[in-house]
Amino acid sequence: MIGRIYHVGLTVSDIDRSIAFYRDILGLEFQGELFMEGEETDKMFRKKNCKARVAYLNGSKAIEAPPVELIQFVDSEIHKAQSDLFTTSISEVCFYTDDIDSVYKTFIENHVDCLSEPQYFDFRADGFGESRAFYFRDPDGIILEMMQPL
Fold first, then answer.
1. Predicted confidence (pLDDT) per residue in 33-74, tens digit
2. Residue of 125, 123, 121 whose CA lies nearest to 148
3. CA–CA separation, 108 and 62 (whole Å)
4. Strand residue runs (E) in 1-150
5. pLDDT of 2 above 90
């Protein structure tokens, strides 16, 4: 049986830069890092001599809140295309805040690529309530979302 989400993984090109962004800009707590290599890693990623640095960060102590897993493949060329909001294969991670205006201001001050200012959404008629949200990019251009339920 499938239970809760265990973690959300993102492939990054520079794990140190990404750790700094997720820790220092988003405020997630660095939980640790590990290095993957060997036969099991080769089989799992279907790549010979596969090596990866993996870091975990989390913004909550609640067991229901999965950590963000950052993966940097070492000695491998990463083929990636810049994501956009109109690609059907878009993936995102949405972060919760209780003060979206403060977060947005901090992001702008730190030159984070925000795709809009916080926007108001009213989905009460659909049973989902009200919120404010905006999209932004991490250093690799991965689209992320910040949301404040109202």
1. 999 999 999 888 888 898 999 999 998 776 677 889 999 999
2. 121
3. 29
4. 8-11, 29-37, 51-58, 68-73, 93-96, 119-123, 129-137, 143-149
5. no
Q: Which two tokens stand for residue 107?
A: 């992001």
Strands 68-73 vs 8-11: parallel, antiparallel or unpaired: parallel
Q: What angle do CA 34, 92, 87 make, to 5 degrees?
A: 125
**What six digits make up the tokens of 76?**
């491998």
**Are the beta carbons of 51 and 74 closer than 8 angstroms?**
yes
Segments in the chain forming alpha helices (H): 15-20, 39-45, 100-109
Among 106, 108, 134, residue whose Cα is nearest residue 120: 134
Per DSSP, 67 falls in state P
User: Could you give the 3-state DSSP secondary structure of residue 58?
Assistant: strand
Task: Report the relative pairing of strands 129-137 and 119-123 from DSSP bridges.
Answer: antiparallel
Question: Nearest 10 degrees: CA dihedral of 113, 115, 121, 123?
Answer: -100
Could you read off the pLDDT of 81-101 as tens digits, one per residue? 666 666 655 567 888 899 999
